[in-house]
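hey m, so remember when u said the tokens were messed up on ur end? i reran from scratch. heres the input so u can diff it against urs
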Amino acid sequence: MFAIAIHGGAGTLARAQMSSKQESDYLAGLSAALDAGHAVLANGGASLDAATAAVRVLEDNPLFNAGRGAVLNRDGMAELDASLMDGRTLGAGAVSGLRHIRNPIDLARLVMDRSPHVMLVGTGAEDFARTQGVELVSNEYFRTPARQRQLERHLGGSVSRENELEAFGTVGAVTLDAHGNLAAATSTGGMTGKRWGRVGDSPIIGAGTYANNDSCAVSATGHGEYFIRAAVAHDICAQAEYLAIPLKQAVDNVLNGRMKKLGGNGGVIALNARGDVILDFNTEGMFRGVSTSQGRREIAIFR
């Protein structure tokens, strides 16, 4: 069997904030990413390739906070983070603070496959990209009118990040291929108006991304500082493995237990080698989808 789950961000969004056209557009974007990953798996492809393919589609969709359409920092620049992990080998790649890489998830994959390192940041990561023949793009490529307006409202203090539909959209995927191998991938533009090179959980292995064939694969979205402090992605997998508890319980223990007590909000998608898929969040909504070889296909935003 094989399976894929994706997310496109979680938060305190309400149905009243979203028009039917917006909802339709978001669902279409999730569907396209789900289809891209599912196609790789259906053709016998590797879990890591499927996760990368799904995230790449979401990075290219300006509705989501990753790649083109990412939120802007205080200086009006897009700064991008991404990571991925191979559950079979525990190999991992991560990048942070990118300003000129069209698809950060692809560079994270190159870091894993073609360097001795796990994480590269900023200009160093982009120097590495050049050595790998990656074409760099202008930062203008990522900026959209919606994100510019969002930044202006943020700087003007007229709206909070938590109450703004456009603020959501960190993306991720977890996959299980026909060979029983798991993978996870996550990509984001971070927080609107961020300063001082702030980095959230998305590029941090064990916080926003983790995969191990012996336990599970996890991709997270939400208030990154809390996901880092609770080592959410790794803790879910560790509990599932060491306590031998169902994946659903492990997710609940961490997301609605340890992290919630810290004050953190968000959601996770999780998948194990048996094909159990968990899409859970402690917010009002999470852009999400799942597709399996057994015919399960769901795409949703609200509960």
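this time it looks ok to me. The first helix runs from residue 20 to 42. if urs says something different then somethings off w ur setup not the seq
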